Amino acid sequence: xxxxxxxxxxxxxxxxxxxxxxxxxxxxxxxxxxxxxxxxxxxxxxxxxxxxxxxxxxxxxxxxxxxxxxxxxxxxxxxxxxxxxxxxxxxxxxxxxxxxxxxxxxxxxxxxxxxxxxxxxxxxxxxxxxxxxxxxxxxxxxxxxxxxxxxxxxxxxxxxxxxxxxxxxxxxxxxxxxxxxxxxxxxxxxxxxxxxxxxxxxx
Length: 203
Ligand SMILES: Cc1cc2nc3c(=O)[nH]c(=O)nc-3n(C[C@H](O)[C@H](O)[C@H](O)COP(=O)(O)O)c2cc1C
Prior knowledge:
It is a single chain. This protein has seven helices and five strands, in the order H-E-H-E-H-H-E-H-E-H-E-H. Strands 1, 2, 3, 4 and 5 form a five-stranded antiparallel β-sheet that branches. The protein has helices at residues 12-23, 38-48, 69-84, 89-101, 120-140, 156-161, 194-197; strands at residues 31-32, 60-66, 105-111, 144-148, 169-179. It is α+β, with helices and mostly antiparallel strands. The protein has a domain at 28-68 and 103-180: NADH Oxidase. The protein is globular, with a radius of gyration of 19 Å. Bound molecules: flavin mononucleotide. The site of flavin mononucleotide has 8 residues, from strand 4. Flavin mononucleotide binds next to strand 4.
């Protein structure tokens, strides 16, 4: 580790500022341009690659969908929705199209699951940790992001179009961009209370 980055060398006020920013993260579903790219996007992807990973499998795979490719991606999602669901497919196809159209950057996060002594769930959790690290980095850089799944994320055909064939699989899509300004009087979502989620173990 670069000694200049050792925790003891980081000034306390910098640490507190970083934590304050981390604790201010919330999902941003309403996005607009611009999305991070270049060096900023590299930082976000590198944050994903800092996820813990049992067995050094390095199972994370990130597929970027942006720019003009989004139209073709929306077509695929629409095709998948129509093939999956005769009753609600058309409605789901339109929903998917609208989401892709208003999302400047989509990071599809997948896990290349390897058979062996590391249980599948640990590999998937590592993919989830990578997704979370990226969401935090998106927020720290001043952008907004939201993790979504839905029926498309569990559809084998959609997984295949992204290059994930069983046992490998998608763990979700990160929608990334610039958060749309919220009206000043918009209600803020209360965060959960620490004490409702934590207890001391007692035998
Ligand atoms: C694995 C996973 C899948 C999710 N899928 C969806 C989804 O498909 N649609 C949705 O509206 N929210 C989904 N969410 C929830 C949002 O990403 C977000 O966490 C939620 O809106 C709460 O906002 P917050 O992150 O600010 O607490 C998902 C979250 C996780 C962890």
